[in-house]
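User: Good morning. I'm curious how cobalt (II) ion would be positioned relative to this chain. Could you predict the structure with it bound?
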Amino acid sequence: MITIKTESEIEKMRESGRLTKNVLELIEKSIRVGMTTKDLDKIAYDYIKSCGATPSFLNYCGYPASICASIDETVVHGIPSDEIVIRDGQIVSIDVGVEYNGYHGDAARTFTVGNVSEEKRKLVEVTKECFFKGIENLKDGTPLGDIGFAVQSHAEANGYSVVRALVGHGIGTKMHEDPQVPNYGRKGTGIRLKKGMAIAIEPMINAGVYQVDFMPDGWTVKTRDRKPSAHYENTVVIGEDGVEILTL
Ligand code: CO
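Assistant: Good morning! Here's the predicted structure, ligand included:
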């Protein structure tokens, strides 16, 4: 079931969105070579708790942390660990969700650490661009497939591929609501998005093949060819003439 948010619900989602954005800005300022992904998780957890909010990911289907930290060939859902040390030249995707006043925000960024190769830097840039292509013409009445079409077109025009095994999603009182929001698709297909729908749009873009492998830990997703992957996500609300980004 797809829910339409009232203005007072959207106001609450603005607050959870703002806290979600704050976590990512804090991590961006803190991330350094030599830190562990567990260090980043603690920064996120402590900040979220200090706001009187709840980390949406913690204990979600048994997930053991407040963020996902996914380095290089890890696409998403990397579990923070005190054994994973961030090294020079890596790209680190941080995904975080915050629940506040009963509503969730969900967002991700891919950070470059130290001296990153031109190839990886471009992948990170294009992945962010894919999100903005996805929302470019998005407004009340837009077919859902237009988002995926725009994301996929931009990724493939740059020689990259779009992960299909994982998708974006509706969001609100639950972190994952209907509809699913694929990063691939055909223009003019799917349901029409309506004013007041809230969705998380999250392109996961691979430098090589689109296929991924699910690791035995039950969470970590890696590219099948172990080439790098980037992730960029924001929670948005559909409006009459465009979208409002709640996590930027
Ligand atoms: Co999400």
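The domain at 7-245 is CATH 3.90.230.10 (Creatine Amidinohydrolase). Helices lie at 7-30, 37-50, 118-135, 145-157.
Let me know if you'd like a different ligand tried.
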